[in-house]
From TrEMBL:
Domain Histidine kinase: 1-90
InterPro entries, per the entry: CheY-like_superfamily, HATPase_C_sf, HATPase_dom, His_kinase_dom, Sig_transdc_His_kin-like_C, Sig_transdc_resp-reg_receiver
Alphabetized CDD domains for the sequence: HATPase
SMART domains associated with the record: HATPase_c (SM00387), REC (SM00448)
Segments forming domain Response regulatory: 109-229
Organism: marine sediment metagenome
Keyword Phosphoprotein set for record: yes
UniProt keyword annotations, A-Z: Phosphoprotein
Protein's UniProt keywords contain Iron: no
The protein, known as: Response regulatory domain-containing protein
A GO molecular-function descriptor: phosphorelay sensor kinase activity
Lineage, top ranks: unclassified sequences, metagenomes, ecological metagenomes
Length: 231
């Protein structure tokens, strides 16, 4: 769920006073014990319940870089709830100037593929606040299907963001190969938290239009999207 809220000056969240978007993500899974909660945002922390991953660490970095915060509550056997607080971006559309020949943000459709639900939701919210139309999927086969569906309706995606590493599914590199078969003109960004990944450092050789390093910053995300949109 998502809602807008005003955070007062005196609060226990460590946030500045102002308008915030609050995202609440809840599951009915196995939950986590208290001993895991203090480590859940550590990169590659592994336990029997959380597994091994850097996704939550990336999410926390993204949120912190945008002056927000994330809280987690969990009960073993009942599930886990993540509550994300992000400063609201108050846009005055009359002051947003598009350069001549640019594709306006409000007309740009972006497809995001990432296997972390919380990253998909945060990135979708960031894109929406910037004025883009965001669609999200969790793995490559779904990305290919939805891309093809919109292309056949003559309403193609303007940009696709593909996470290179997808657990238990088709990753970014293979998905990219399939998208180029469907649409040789596809504009696709490679996304990863690994700065030394060979695709990130040499993305053009793999057919990508650009690369995004996690954690994302709103201004960097917007900048590279506009660059790719108007190539």
């Amino acid at each position: 769920s998502a809602k807008n809220s005003i955070i007062k000056e005196e609060n226990d969240l460590g946030l500045e006073q102002g308008n915030y978007v609050i995202l609440k993500i809840q599951d009915n899974g196995i939950g986590m014990p208290e001993s895991d909660l203090s480590h859940v945002f550590d990169p590659f922390y592994m336990s029997n319940m959380t597994g091994k991953d850097m996704g939550l660490a990336v999410v926390k970095d993204i949120i912190n870089q945008h002056n927000g915060t994330i809280r987690i509550d969990s009960i073993v056997g009942e599930g886990t709830t993540f509550t994300i607080y992000l400063p609201a971006i108050l846009l005055d559309s009359s002051k947003i100037k598009e350069k001549k020949g640019e594709i306006p943000r409000k007309h740009a459709k972006v497809l995001v593929m990432d296997d972390e639900d919380i990253i998909r939701r945060v990135l979708s919210k960031m894109l929406t606040q910037l004025g883009y139309e965001a669609h999200v999927v969790n793995e490559g086969i779904s990305a290919i299907k939805i891309y093809k569906k919109f292309l056949e309706k003559n309403d193609p995606f303007d940009v696709v963001i593909l996470d290179l590493t997808i657990r238990g599914g088709m990753g970014g590199a293979e998905t990219m190969e399939n998208l180029l078969i469907i649409d040789p003109k596809a504009k696709v960004l490679a996304s990863s938290g690994y700065t030394t990944d060979k695709i990130i450092t040499n993305y053009e050789s793999y057919g990508f239009s650009g690369a995004l390093i996690k954690p994302y910053r709103v201004n960097e995300l917007d900048k590279i999207l506009l660059e790719v949109l108007n190539k």
